[in-house]
Design brief:
Length: 459
């Protein structure tokens, strides 16, 4: 059997690597139009940082895992074609700011139709609005050689970044949606079930109709994000009342009906999925004439935006209502630990707020490149005269970032931040020295003993 995947991004790359790793009899080819990305997948410096990914790629690459820019051959040879291209939020036209932009998906469908000379299974891996499969099928059928059959399946990916390899090798469930009402549809579903059954227990492989599968992915992300916005809303109340949000989260999380996960109060959720998928859900609800349902879910985003701006306001008000010219050390820039991904990271929004207030940002992140930080902050590295940007100092070392700072903000929960020598950091900072722990990972009592003024979320 031959599998191909269009799109070698955060989802397509690791997912296909795992399939190849677990199924030596299947040839897996990942095709992307971005040559630099494909070159990186073929090098020792993979374009995605994920613990354990290097080992999986090294074991399978060249054996039954291939990365290429030649999508034509990849499509022609494949029995199953995964589509894992980006579905960013539309920035133009109807649904701008909410709906998913399906341009790249449609281009893939047209490629598949054009280059296929036999029937194939086409799998939506990207997160898509409900009923996209119908559009995909229509484009495939209208543009392909008559008589060919394209079975469209939905197989959303639930992996989280930073734990991709663990999530892929031991998934809570695999979800496969297809046309359950036809013989060909059931056969296609079974073909994909058999691929995953090489390493996933059958009872964890869920099959549904197409629309349930497409919708479940959006709803799973909406529910997860909702839990974070819920606990973050309570964090504000805790700060006013003297309750401790981590104690509250623990107390409610022990109720087996609520459960302990995704209740960590923070400076706000980020990542490529949560906001995008909720906006998409909101758009769908509006489209289908359900404004009350749309408003309900939109509030999850409103609360998250509020949490981020509340944090930057707290920094400014605590530093005597001005950060103009003051150095603020930002530890962490990625949207969570163990990834170099900065999409929708809270650090970017807090950073922009502080730059507007004329602060000097000294940013340290163990994995994020300076180029990415400048891009996200919408700043250039040099001014018109070619002098370095004086408002942003990217530091390789957290101590250097903190040196001469008035405040230190923890933006990402990197483990390495817990073990820093805070006495050394304190000694190098202006007094009073403020810590804003946006992730509640530090030992606040210890910091206060050293002399820091500590602000934590929900305490
Ligand atoms: C609730 C809490 O569960 C309990 O911990 C607290 O001490 C008191 O309030 P109770 O009101 O007795 O208990 O019933 P519960 O089983 O929680 O149901 C509350 C309502 O939610 C019922 O009308 C029930 O039908 C409804 N419900 C519950 C749903 O509609 N869907 C569900 O999935 C669960
Ligand atoms: C998420 C979903 O978890 C995954 O199933 C889906 O496939 C893609 O979207 P991801 O965005 O990689 O994965 O990361 P996740 O671990 O869910 O974290 C998202 C954001 O929420 C991060 O910014 C994280 O710091 C934040 N978060 C998470 C909290 O603030 N508190 C929590 O308790 C959990
Ligand atoms: P995700 O997080 O969903 O994996 P990414 O943006 O990381 O999204 O990856 C999507 C990838 O899809 C990019 O590398 C992009 O170059 C690739 N891509 C976009 N359009 C096509 C296409 N028509 N054929 C092949 N690859 C494509």
């Amino acid at each position: 059997m031959k599998i191909c995947c269009l799109g070698a991004g955060y989802v397509g790359g690791p997912t296909m690597a795992m399939i190849a790793y677990k199924c030596p009899d299947i040839t897996v080819t990942v095709a992307d139009i971005n040559e630099a990305r494909i070159n990186a997948w073929n090098s020792d410096e993979l374009p995605v940082f994920e613990p354990g990914l290097d080992e999986v790629v090294h074991a399978a690459r060249g054996r039954n895992l291939f990365f290429t820019t030649d999508k034509v051959t990849a499509i022609k040879e494949a029995d199953i074609i995964f589509v894992s291209v980006g579905t960013p939020t539309k920035t133009y036209g109807a649904g701008a700011g909410k709906a998913a932009d399906l341009k790249y998906i449609e281009l893939c469908a047209r490629d598949i139709a054009q280059y296929s000379d036999r029937s194939k299974i086409v799998v939506e891996k990207s997160t898509l609005p409900v009923r996209t499969a119908q559009g995909l099928k229509t484009v495939l059928e209208a543009n392909s050689t008559p008589g060919l059959d394209f079975q469209v399946l939905s197989n959303p990916e639930f992996l989280a970044e930073g734990t991709a390899i663990e999530d892929l090798s031991k998934p809570d469930r695999v979800l496969i949606g297809g046309d359950e009402d036809s013989e060909a549809g059931r056969k296609a579903i079974q073909t994909l079930v058999d691929v995953y059954a090489n390493w996933v227990d059958r009872d964890r492989i869920i099959t549904t109709n197409l629309w349930s599968s497409e919708l479940s992915k959006l709803v799973a992300n909406a529910f997860l994000a909702q839990r974070i916005s819920s606990i973050n809303s309570i964090s504000a109340l805790c700060e006013r009342t003297g309750a401790n949000v981590d104690q509250v989260a623990y107390a409610i999380g022990t109720d087996s009906r609520i459960g302990p996960k995704f209740l960590k109060a923070s400076v706000g959720f980020g990542g490529s999925c949560f906001q995008k998928d909720i906006l998409n859900l909101v758009y769908l609800c509006e489209y289908f004439g359900l404004p009350d349902v749309a408003a309900y879910w939109e509030q999850v985003i409103v609360m998250n935006d509020w949490q981020k701006s509340r944090f930057s306001q707290k920094i400014v008000s605590t530093l005597f209502n001005t950060v103009n010219g003051k150095r603020i050390a930002m530890l962490g820039f990625a949207f969570k630990k163990d990834t170099n991904d900065t999409r929708e990271t809270a650090a970017m929004y807090v950073g922009r707020d502080l730059l507007d207030e004329q602060a000097v940002l000294a940013i340290h992140d163990p994995k994020v490149s300076p180029e990415q930080m400048f891009k996200d902050l919408k700043e250039s590295r040099t001014d018109a005269d070619g002098n370095p940007n004086k408002q942003i100092d990217v530091c390789e070392d957290p101590y250097a970032a903190a040196k001469g700072a008035h405040g230190l903000a923890i933006m990402t929960e990197w483990d390495s931040f817990k073990d820093l020598d805070f006495q050394k950091i304190y000694d190098g900072m202006y007094k009073p020295a403020f810590v804003f722990d946006g992730r509640n990972i530090l030992d606040h009592e210890k910091l206060r003993k050293i002399g820091f003024e500590v602000f934590a979320i929900g305490r």
